[in-house]
Every structure is written in structure tokens, then in C-alpha cells.
Design goal:
The chain is of the alpha+beta class. The protein is built from eleven helices and 13 strands. The chain has a five-stranded mixed beta sheet. The chain is elongated.
């Protein structure tokens, strides 16, 4: 608040607003008053000029009506002689009187004029033209500048009347020493021209203007100072004190004493509300401190519990990791130990079926075939367990090479054909497979196809259809393979976990369709190792569509010596 600019203060802004409004009102009032004074002064000048000109015309008319003329006998030229004053002589006398006052000037204009003294100047001609245009006009006036001085010019028209015709009619028999103009009754013969200097008027207006500006300016300044003082005492200072108090309260000084404000009522009410707010804030702050202390203690206790649980969880994770490692090692060891004798058993059974040990009866062949199929299923399960153990131990690598996806699909379908025929399921491969080579691990892709096709055959009833198709996306640079069937389908809520290890759709399905539940998990791992994706689209009872993608070029490859076998 102390650093606030002077112009930003409330009192200053209020005074400025009032001052601007007052100044504008004063300017408008001054202009209006000035124009009225100017108009009134010009009206006074015109009244003076009208009176002077009218008096002159009255005098001239009186002279014209009262003079008598005669023709002396002794005058050889028989010229008229006047017993009284000639009107022209009266005009000359008046003009001489006006000439005594250099400020005013007076003359009589005649149309036409026999000399320059009675000839109109340019401004008088303009006024005379006004009188000619409007014959009903009784006067004409205007403002003119002569030798740098402004004059109020006034013309009073002279129209020919009955007494004037005695000398100036066309039928007059009076002889004059010089030619006089002739007129008709009512004709505009000239005008009385009067010029009054405006210097006195202008000086008066200037003096009054200066006085009015000085008085108005003084009143504005005094009013502004008075308003500023009252605003500062009644508004600005109380608000400043309240602002300091609010700032202190905002900084946490809730016990800051509030100022005692008597007037105005609005600010006093604001101070009361601020005091009430500070009291409530103090109470809330005390309650909050108490709650914070309680919550801090609870949080500290919870952190201790979480710390203990985290330590226990870490211990459990270590035990779980160790158990998982032991499980994987155990499964790998057991599977390896089982695979060797199973391989031998399978080989011996195949030799016996080939007749190496002698001719076999049909019953013996049936028994040996059962043994062979069981050994092969067990060997397949053991290989799947070994692959899963290597995947979990991150010991499974890739051996990439260039190969045709179409060739791998056709080869796997050819190998799976006997199984499909035995179950009376049709296995179809699209003829328009993309002839695109990919850089990937051929054995892993082969295993993915075997797992998907064998699952499709296994979960499809007799008379069903298993179909394999593929396409190549040039923009994405990847091959998409689809294995579809018309089997039992998969419910949407069960599709989330079918790619997990040792999981099938449900227990009843596991019993009806035996297996380890590792096929899809291994397929998912092999596809993701190549940077591809695998997903399923299915509805219960409507069959399933399994998709997986293979990038055309494997960018990051982990290569092992035996390809993970």
C-alpha cells in the first residue's frame, strides 16, 4: 500500500473524475455564456447604430420638409435658392460631427453616386445587395475588418418619399448648379452607413472571459482539494488501515488489531465483517492445527505400518522369486529327465510298430499306438513346460532368418491336416496368401501357428471349419495372420486371461479338452519377442478369430546358440 502510485489512490482518482466532469461542464457553460454575451453585445451595438441612423434620417426628413426655395430675379442662371438648410448640408454637418470621433465613422450612400464620398465600398455593396434582394428588410449589418480593426457595419436604407420628389423626381422643374439623381417614389436611393469599432466590445468580452475562467478555475481547484481532503479522511485512510489489517491477517497474524472506524457506516460495517472473519479464521486455524497434529500422528503411524508391510512384502517377493526360480528349475529338471526316457519309449514303440521285433497282432498294434499317442502328448506337454520355463527365466532367444510366411503356413497346415481329418474338422488355407518374406525366427513363428491351429481344431466339433488367412500391410510393414474357427467361442469376460500360463476357458472345458494351458501363453510370448501383437475376437458359441502380427524386419534380436531349444 505504501508503494502504491499516487495516481492509483482512490481519492486522487475520484478527484480526477470529478475535476474532468467539472471542467467539461465549465467549458460548455463558458462557451454558452460567451456566445450569449457576444450576441447581447452585438445586439447593443446594433441598437446604438439603429438609434443613431434613425435619428439622422429623422433629422434629414425634417430638413427636407421644412426648407423653401425661390428664384431670385437677379440670378442670371435662374438657379433655385433655399431659405433654410439643404438636406445635403445637414448630412455633411452630421458627417463632420462623427469625424470628430475617430472610433466611429458615418456617411450617406447614394445610388448612383456623383462622387467618391457618397460611393459605397465593397462591404456596403454586399449589404445593399441584401436590401435589394429583400425589399422588406428595414436594415442590414455585418462585421468587417478595416486596417486590421474589426467594425460593426450598419446600413439603414433610404427610400424615396413624397418630399424627396420635389427635387429628385423626373418631372422636377427646379434647376441646380450640378446634376442631381432622379428617382421614383419608394425607390431605394441609398443608405445611411454607420461603422462602430468592436475593440471595446472585444476587450470587454476578453476581460469577462478571463475573469470567468479565473473564478471557475479557482472554484474547481478549491472543490477538488476539498473533495480530496474529505475522501482521504472518510474513505481512503480507513480503507488503507483495513487493507493493512487484511494483509496482516493474510500473512497469518490473526491477532492483528483492527482500526476503530466511526464513519462512514459502510466502511465501519466492512471493518466489523473483517473482524468477524478474522475471529472465525483464528478459530478455524486453531481447529486446523489440532486436526493437523492428529492427522500427522495418524500419518506417522500409518507410515510405520506401511514401512513394516513394505519390508514384509519385499521379503515375500524375495521368497516368491526364489520359489519361482526353484519351481522353474524343478520343472526344467523334471521335464528334462522325463523327456529323455519318453523319447526312448517313443522310438522303441515306433520300431515295434514297424515290425522290428516281429509280426504284431492287431490288438498289440492298438496297444502300442495308444502308448505312442500318450508318449507324444506327454512329450509335447514337457516341451511346452520347458519353453515356458525358459521364457520366464528370460533365457529364450531368437534365431532370425529370411523366410516366406506363406510357406510356413502351408507347411504347418499340412502337418496338422491328419489331426483335423481324424476329428472330422475341415482345415482350409486361403490361396491368396501374401508372398512376402520376413526376417524373423522361423521355428518360433511355426510354433505359434501350431499352437493356434491345434487349439482351433481341439475346440471345434466334428463338421466344423478351421481357416487360416494372412495379409500384408505395406504402410505398417507387417504381416497379419488370422486363424478362425467355428468352435465353442470365448465369452468377453474370459478373453482377458486366456493368454496367461496354465489357464484355459474354465474347469469344465479343461476336463473336456485336456491340455496344459500353455499354448496361447507361449504363442503370446513368441509374438511379442518379435515386436508383434496377438489378440482374439470371439463370441460365446460363435467361434473365435485369433490374430497376430509379424514385422517384416526384426529390429532388435536376442540370439542364442540353439535358438532356445
Amino acid at each position: 500500500m505504501k508503494n502504491a502510485r499516487f495516481i492509483d489512490k482512490l481519492g486522487v482518482r475520484l478527484v480526477l473524475c470529478l475535476a474532468i466532469i467539472t471542467i467539461w461542464v465549465s467549458i460548455l457553460s463558458f462557451v454558452w455564456t460567451f456566445e450569449r454575451q457576444k450576441a447581447r453585445a452585438e445586439a447593443e451595438l446594433m441598437d446604438k447604430a439603429r438609434v443613431a441612423a434613425s435619428q439622422f434620417l429623422a433629422t434629414r426628413a425634417f430638413v427636407a420638409e421644412s426648407y423653401q426655395y425661390y428664384y431670385p430675379v437677379t440670378d442670371p442662371e435662374n438657379l433655385a435658392q433655399f431659405e433654410h438648410l439643404d438636406p445635403a448640408a445637414a448630412e455633411k454637418g452630421v458627417r463632420e460631427l462623427f469625424r470628430g470621433d475617430e472610433a466611429w465613422f458615418f456617411k450617406e450612400i447614394w445610388l448612383p453616386s456623383s462622387d467618391d464620398l457618397h460611393a459605397p465600398d465593397e462591404f456596403e455593396l454586399e449589404l445593399l445587395n441584401r436590401l435589394r434582394v429583400d425589399p422588406s428588410s428595414q436594415e442590414a449589418w455585418g462585421i468587417d475588418t478595416i486596417d486590421g480593426r474589426r467594425y460593426f457595419r450598419y446600413l439603414l436604407p433610404i427610400h424615396i418619399e413624397e418630399p424627396c420628389l420635389t427635387c429628385h423626381s423626373n418631372d422636377s422643374h427646379i434647376a441646380f448648379s450640378q446634376e442631381v439623381p432622379r428617382y421614383e417614389l419608394g425607390e431605394l436611393a441609398g443608405a445611411v452607413s454607420l461603422g462602430i469599432p468592436m475593440v471595446v466590445l472585444e476587450e470587454t468580452l476578453r476581460t469577462e472571459t478571463i475573469a470567468q475562467v479565473a473564478v471557475t478555475g479557482s472554484l474547481i481547484v478549491l472543490s477538488a482539494l476539498a473533495i480530496y481532503w474529505f475522501v482521504r479522511q472518510l474513505v481512503e485512510r480507513p480503507l488503507t488501515k483495513l487493507a493493512w489489517a487484511a494483509t496482516a491477517i493474510g500473512e497469518g497474524h490473526l491477532d492483528y488489531p483492527l482500526p476503530k472506524i466511526a464513519v462512514p457506516v459502510e466502511i465501519r460495517q466492512l471493518a466489523k465483517q473483517l473482524d468477524s472473519m478474522a475471529t472465525r479464521l483464528k478459530r478455524y486455524y486453531d481447529d486446523l492445527e489440532h486436526q493437523v497434529a492428529e492427522r500427522t500422528a495418524e500419518l506417522r503411524y500409518a507410515n510405520e505400518i506401511l514401512k513394516q508391510q513394505r519390508e514384509e512384502l519385499q521379503k515375500a517377493n524375495r521368497r516368491l522369486a526364489e520359489a519361482n526360480k526353484l519351481k522353474s528349475e524343478f520343472l526344467a529338471s523334471v521335464s528334462h529327465e522325463l523327456r529323455t526316457p519318453l523319447t526312448s519309449i517313443t522310438a522303441f514303440v515306433e520300431l515295434l510298430l514297424e515290425g522290428v521285433g516281429g509280426e504284431l497282432t492287431d490288438l498289440q498294434k492298438e496297444y502300442l499306438n495308444d502308448v505312442l499317442r500318450g508318449s507324444q502328448r506327454l512329450l509335447t506337454s514337457i516341451n511346452a513346460i520347458l519353453d515356458m520355463a525358459k521364457i520366464e527365466a528370460k533365457k529364450m532367444g531368437l534365431l532370425p532368418s529370411w523366410f516366406s510366411v506363406a510357406d510356413v503356413i502351408n507347411d504347418v497346415a499340412h502337418r496338422m491336416e491328419p489331426i483335423a481329418v481324424k476329428k472330422e474338422v475341415r482345415l482350409l488355407v486361403d490361396e491368396d496368401l501374401p508372398q512376402t518374406d520376413v526376417y524373423a525366427d522361423k521355428e518360433k513363428i511355426d510354433q505359434v501357428l501350431v499352437n493356434l491351429i491345434s487349439n482351433a481344431i481341439k475346440f471345434t466339433d466334428a463338421g466344423g471349419l478351421v481357416r487360416v488367412k494372412a495379409c500384408y500391410d505395406e504402410q505398417a510393414q507387417e504381416v497379419t495372420v488370422c486363424v478362425s474357427d467355428t468352435g465353442i467361442g470365448i465369452a468377453p469376460e474370459q478373453q482377458e486371461y486366456i493368454f496367461e500360463a496354465f489357464r484355459q476357458v474354465d474347469g469344465s472345458t479343461t476336463r473336456k479338452h485336456p491340455g496344459t494351458g500353455l499354448g496361447l501363453a507361449i504363442a503370446k510370448s513368441f509374438v511379442e519377442m518379435h515386436g508383434g501383437k496377438i489378440w482374439v475376437e470371439s463370441d460365446l458359441g460363435m467361434g473365435s478369430n485369433f490374430y497376430f502380427t509379424i514385422p517384416k524386419i526384426l529390429k532388435e534380436v536376442e540370439v542364442t546358440e540353439n535358438g532356445g531349444q
